[in-house]
Structure prediction request, 272 residues.
Amino acid sequence: MSTAASARTVGRPSGATARTPALYPSLITHVRTRPRRHVLRHRTYLWLVDLDALPRLPRILRPLARFDARDHFGGGRREGAPATIREGLEAFLAARGVALHGGRVLMLAHARVFGHVFNPLSLYWCHTPDGVLRCVVAEVHNTYGQRHCYLLEPQAAEHGSGRTHQEFRTEKELYVSPFFGVDGAYRMRLPVPDERLDLGVRLESDGSHRLTATVRGVRRPAGTAGLLRAAVRHPWSTAAVSLGIRFHGLRLWRRGLPVQPRPPHPHQEGMQ
Prediction:
């Protein structure tokens, strides 16, 4: 897996002025090309937050958005678990020789809604104190209660627009879909969200791609009105994500896709 274990920083100032918190009503699309073509589209909304300045909502709105350390990294209810999401992130990075020295971290994720959360992918853009992107952490959850974090080192790539995007490649290490084994590699395009959210993840294997996922959205204010609007349009959004994944899995199974064996997932260092 590509890591950012070296002490150097890469990239240019990125995300240092991103306005948080923010909401991104989003369209998530998955296109499977192997072994059979299948398209999934799901509308939801995601939060972009600063880990050192998480939203403080009025009491009446707190059931609609809660950010809990137990939902990320080594979090849980056991003794010694991280008290905050940032603490869990720092422990994960420290085990890989990475220190942020207080630099800003932006997280894109679902919040807990009515006590439930499921984040297939949470992203953390980690910056140095002077605003340079140090690394990105991609935290993946599967429907079997397992999580795995990928430490990604950015490599700038100029696109036709002249804007620098951050692109990554990492070997797949977590069993996610029951119809794919733990083989292949992810190629990820993960620019820091600004007025628009535009992410892409491609699973590649044997010289071709099996799955392409995109997340696209437009920034909206995360005030009371914005949150209520998003909650009305997408009631109990996190439960809808969980149910949608299982529904599409059932459709694929009924179409005859073979289920791949699920190997044990080794514990990751720094996820105590």
The CA atoms of residues 48 and 108 lie 5 Å apart. The chain has one domain: 22-254. Confidence is low (pLDDT under 50) at residues 1-12, 157-164. Helices lie at 85-94, 224-233, 237-254.
